[in-house]
Amino acid sequence: MKKSYKINYFKEIDSTNAYALRNLAELSDKQIIVADKQTAGKGRLNRSWISNRENNVYLSIALKPCDKVNNNLPLVNLTQYMSVVICKILEKYGVTPEIKWANDVLVDGKKIAGILAQSSIQGEVFKGLVLGVGINLNLSQEDIQLINQPATSLNLILGNFVDRDRFIEQLLDDFFENYDAFLNQGFSFIKKEYTDRINFLNKKISVTVLDCIENGIAKEIADDGSLLLLTENMEQKVITMGDICINESLY
Q: What pLDDT, in 10s, does the model give residues 3-25?
């Protein structure tokens, strides 16, 4: 079957997202940037991502679904769509992943994949969106110890080496298989698959939004992908961005 995308491979690059953003005007829609190594990989909230080890997933997708700002397109939910795609592939490897809102993928409470979306907009002109993905496929236990949060790698879970190129092909094929349907239907297209895999509903959580912390119980995921939080004061708040910390105890 003919691929709807094409891939540019690099042995080493500063960051696939940074490269794609710098060259977005020249990149075609659905063009993929893949690197064997990154020297300055970044995740959400400008956190560093260890990405100078080969045979892991470091890639970015240039997406240009429109040429003007279109608030009807569910672009803010693309990371959540990708998190579901990653989970479904990991499940094919016999792994049981979970999603930590909004889009981190965990296994046994340890991060295995991160996703970062960055848009380029000038006035009313939408230049495009870059969707970056980092997945730990082949790391040593020593590599894991260098990560400043609980983390894991697919090879350590399975006990054997993971073929990176095969994983990337499956990831891209599965992502684009339902990409158009997702753009047409929005978050509702993945809501059940997403909520079935999240790990925090009805649990006490803390949500850090910039410098503010909100405490409460995660009640549900809204139809637009936002998080509905019941605060300690019994107020319901809509959270559209932030970093959550889960506490197993309930009120």
A: 889 999 999 999 999 999 999 99
Instruction: Give dist(CA 115, CA 247) in Å, integer.
Output: 23
Q: Is the confidence at residue 46, as pLDDT, over 60?
A: no
The total of structural domains in the chain comes to 2
Residues 109-168: tens digit of each pLDDT: 999 999 999 999 999 999 999 999 999 999 999 999 999 889 999 999 999 999 999 999
| Residue ending a domain, choose from 156, 172, 195 | 195
Say if CB 130 and CB 29 are below 8 A apart: no
Q: Do 194 and 80 meet the contact criterion of CB atoms below 8 Å apart?
A: yes
Residue 192 token pair: 């059940």
Which pLDDT score is estimated for 104?
A: 95
Q: Three-state SS across 154-176?
A: HHHHHCCCCCHHHHHHHHHHHHH
1 within a domain of the structure (yes/no): no
CATH code of the domain in which 32 resides: 3.30.930.10
Domain encompassing residue 214: 204-247
Q: Quick check: pTM over 0.90?
A: yes
Q: Is residue 28 domain-resident?
A: yes
**For residues 27 and 128, is the Cβ–Cβ distance under 8 A?**
yes
Q: Residue 2's pLDDT is what?
A: 77
- Same domain (yes/no): 171, 217: no
Q: Domain boundary residue among 195, 219, 235? A: 195
The residues, ordered by sequence, that sit 6+ positions from 149 with a Cβ below 8 Å of its Cβ are 111
d(CA 185, CA 183): 6
Between CA 182 and CA 65 the distance in angstroms is 12
